């Protein structure tokens, strides 16, 4: 199953694994670096952003290091299978990508700055892979929580596409879709949360193109 065609082709809802009505594992209460709750409740005034940029171990660290980020957690998003496990997602039979949920203070770090960090931390032109990591679970994605986020994400994509083309890179394959009821975020198993804090010498497959993303190309608010 691990080497099926679904490593590089998304399953249809009919082909996806059935899943389960509840999580099959517990999620830790607090962030090991920031000390704040992973699953909430979150303080008033904070906002949520969801990103997929390859293996979520290194991706999560990129965001928790940013000033103004209150908490981060990793999970699975954009697929069909409810409450999947890591092994199921890696099989390619759920349709999810590995995602990072970022809870942030927009008064300290605007959404546009998170978008810049997102674009510059990976190669968004690679389709169902990120470097040597191959599979639909490594695809680039932004799941938005408001029309303003959607507009800002699309504007930043268009600006970064121009910068990438100028530098000789291919087209962006990032999917930008609402994080609505059809694309819920399912938290990952506890051992994946803040993995590189628990395992400082652990694997990190995150690497950008070296092309700077323009800032100020989209509304800063959500």
TrEMBL record:
Keywords: Oxidoreductase
One matching Pfam family: PMSR
Listed EC numbers: 1.8.4.11
Polar residues bias spans: 1-11
EC class name: oxidoreductase
Signal peptide: none
GO molecular function: L-methionine:thioredoxin-disulfide S-oxidoreductase activity; peptide-methionine (S)-S-oxide reductase activity
Record has Oxidoreductase as a keyword: yes
Domain Peptide methionine sulphoxide reductase MsrA: 50-204
Active site positions, chain numbering: 55
Stated name of the protein: Peptide methionine sulfoxide reductase MsrA
UniProt organism field: Streptomyces sioyaensis
